[in-house]
Amino acid sequence: PFPPPFHFPAETALKGIDFQTRDLEKRHVIEICPFRAWELVLHHQKDYSIANAINLGVVSDVAYDEEQSIADFFLSQCQDLSQLPFRSARKKTYAKALARDVPFSERYFPPVSLDTSKAVEPEGDTQLFYAYNKSSIIVSWKGTSSGTDGITDGTFRPVESETCETKTQCTDLLPAGKVHEGFWEAYNLLKIKYPEEVNNLLDKIEGKDLYVAGHSLGGALALIHATELKTHNPLLYTYGMPRTFTRDAVLQLASITHFRHVNDTDPVPGVPPEANVDNAFYDLWGPIGTTLGALWSTVELSAYQAIKWGDCYWHHGNPVIFLTATQ
């Protein structure tokens, strides 16, 4: 609703030019400065891109912000050409985005943030935001940041992705293989709470390059989302994500370009273990069965190196590993 502050500084903006009568007999040249804005440098390609890694890492970090701060990144920082968009904490900058200036008409539109804990009927703690311009759309899922998220992470029973559970929608996401129950329920909860907004997102994807990103739990949700949107050719970059699908499911996802970043000794990519953790206890006595199943899975996991048979949890994507080198 207001002109961009970078092009209209408060001390000089919109004050006009005064002309005296004698000035009308002179020729005047007025230079018009075109409006510009920052666009994140992203390459929609199958090869790895460090620019993608940096910028999709930045937006994965932005996903942890409150709605107003997310809007500030795209509507203020990306319209201030005096400095690159950046991330900061305690008044210190710790990351800068890679950006190029583009015509103002190609700027980012106001981002849309969805949070199930702030829905009309609040439930769970699943969040994403998406930002878009004329040519591309970025979807970023928030990772673990609360006790509710911790429960989601720990509900690691593999379940059929096309079944109808109490809190999930019926879907034919994959005809074979299984998905982490906690991630699957968290993902579908957002679709249940925001059906209209999710449909709007699908409409905006048409004709644009699609980028999906997330850190930790957000990476798992991003992979599920990319799976559902695979006909739209998503480019997926994740950071420190856990295993999400079992082997039979992962084998069907070869068409999705995914670069999975692992940071040195981060334990999160090691869970759930590469093992078949399903068992019959999960199907018994409702919630008690869930508890018994989880306990028995823990017993099995103590020897999981010996039980890597069946439909085990697998990672998806091309690993990009950052190691600390010492001498």
TrEMBL record:
Protein name: Lipase family protein
Cross-referenced InterPro entries: AB_hydrolase_fold (IPR029058), Fungal_lipase-type (IPR002921), Sec_MonoDiacylglyc_Lipase (IPR051218)
Stored Pfam families: Lipase_3
One annotated GO biological process: lipid metabolic process
Residue ranges constituting the Fungal lipase-type domain according to the UniProt record: 138-274
Cleavable signal peptide: none
